[in-house]
Amino acid sequence: MDFTLTEDQREFRALLRSFVDKEIVPVAREWEQTGRYPSEIVQGMADMGLFGITVPEQYGGLDLDPVSFALVFEELARGWMGIAGILGSHSLACRLIAMHGTEEQKQAYLPELATGVRRTGIGLTEPDAGTDLQGIRTTARLDGDHYVVNGAKMWITNARYADPLPVLVKTDPTADPAHRGMSVLLVDTSLPGFEVTKDIPKLGYKGTESCEIVLDDVRVPKEALLGGVEGTGMKQCLSALEWGRVNIAARSVGIAQRAHEEALAYAGQRKAFGQTIGQFQAVQLQLASIATNLQAARLMAYWSADAVRTGRADGATGMAKIFCSEVALEAAIESMKVHGGYGYSTEFEVERLYRDAILMSIGEGTNDVLRTVVAKSLQRGETVVG
């Protein structure tokens, strides 16, 4: 077994870490608190080519391997998890188009998506359908050369910047089982009837918008049907969501890493009873637990990323997303405890880490539902433990 990164991966991580330390860490707390959109950071990511991490090289992208993909989100989330969200939804949509789009669709969108000239997200969740995607109500009725789309989506990252926005719809609402009637449309967000109605206020995950969208008789050309075949949308989305779970696992590791760094630094500076608090055994136990669980989560995230490279990885990515997200929340809480009263203050980083960590157990499928995904993968023999 080789638990080390390649030389290229180590150099790539060092480049990412330098960018995060210089461009994100110094401004994250202030910009998050004031609600300032991180335009300069977005441009910096574009300059580094990060918007093309899941775009094949022939269309101008970096086409990263899954472990390098995980490194991107680990390092970005260490600085500011909301920034990782801007890139996460974009990268998932690019992967969706690259895997399942027609050659015309790839040529039309991927080159500009790779550079950040275009940005995108993915329209899955609805007011009454989150993890249960088969329960969506958005419909697309074929009318001549166009689909007429009606419905609503919510929690859509990059909604105000997406061009196009892949939207999961029901092209056959009567299909049984429901997934056989589901398709993905690459929706031009400038079309009449497409409206971003509001930004949803959130506890954390700031820096990027999460929006509610209404589609009211939006006429989408037939050529926008992803892959050109109806009824394959659910399968298309699920294949891309494997990368999405690696993304969340890696973001969780980034949050836990920052929580560890903040706790360790504070324990070495804060004095009580004539010595730094890091000299007290109780604090040492907390620091050791954070570090131990962090390293276990990191190895789990990389293992699941490598599983994606080798084939179907529902079970592995589900395990990693569950474990890493729970480690992130535990690390944030323990770091807050090390900080004492200051951990509850918005003047310190750890309260933001806590707010951001909570989302990791919810996004890309709730942990409880993913446990059933893992169990089914085990029963099918697709995930081997031991």
Describe, in plain words, how this protein is organized in 3D.
The protein has 386 residues and is of the alpha+beta class. The protein folds into 3 domains: 7-115, Orthogonal Bundle (Butyryl-Coa Dehydrogenase, subunit A, domain 1); 133-231, Butyryl-CoA Dehydrogenase, subunit A, domain 2; 235-380, Butyryl-CoA Dehydrogenase, subunit A, domain 3 (Up-down Bundle). The protein is built from 11 helices and 8 strands. It starts with 6 loop residues before the first helix and ends in a 6-residue tail after the last helix. The model has no long low-confidence stretch (mean pLDDT 95).
Shape: globular
SSE order in H/E notation? Answer: HHHHHHEEEEEEHEEHHHH
Low-confidence stretches: none
Number of helices, where a helix is a run of at least 4 consecutive DSSP H or I residues: 11
Q: Kindly, what is the distance between the CA atoms of the first and last residues, rounded to a whole number of angstroms?
A: 14 Å
- Overall mean confidence score, pLDDT: 95
Can you tell me the CATH superfamily of the largest domain?
Butyryl-CoA Dehydrogenase, subunit A, domain 3
Quote the beta fraction.
Answer: 5-15%
Number of individual domains = 3
Give the CATH topology of the largest domain.
Butyryl-CoA Dehydrogenase, subunit A, domain 3
At the first level of CATH, the class of the largest domain is Mainly Alpha
Tell me the helix content.
40-55%
Number of strands: 8
How would you sum up the major sheet? 4 strands, antiparallel
Please state how the strands of the largest beta sheet are arranged side by side. 1-2-6-5
Class from helix and strand fractions? alpha+beta
CATH architecture of the largest domain: Up-down Bundle
Cα gyration radius (Å): 21 Å
